[in-house]
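**Reference record**
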Amino acid sequence: MTVLIVDAANVVGSVPDGWWRDRRGAAERLRDRLAERDPAGGGEIEGIGAIEEIVLVVEGAARGVESVPGVRVDSAPGSGDDRIVELAASFAERGCVVVTADRELRERVRAYGAECVGPRTVRPAA
C-alpha cells in the first residue's frame, strides 16, 4: 500500500484539451477520475498496485477545489511543487509515488525516497 501524490497542474496540462479556459474545472474533473480509484474500495493503479491514499495537490486558480471520498485535495499556499516535496518528505516512512512529468520536481522528491510516474498513469492522452 502506498500514497499517491498527484501534481494536478502538471497532469492537467499534459493534454491540450482546453483546460486553460477553466483550470478549476479541469482540476475537479481530474479529482473525479481519481476518485473512481477510491483506495477505500480497494483501488489499484496499473504499474503501482494498491493505493492507500490519493492526494491531489492544486495551486493557483485551482485552489479551493474540495476533497471527495477517495481523494484528499491539498491546496498549496504557494508553489505546488514545494508542497509536493513537503508531502513526499512527510510520507517518506510509508512510501509514496508522485505523478508528474516535471524533471526538477522528480529529482526533489526522489531525495525523500519517492517513486515517480508520468501523467499518463492517471490521465490517458486525449
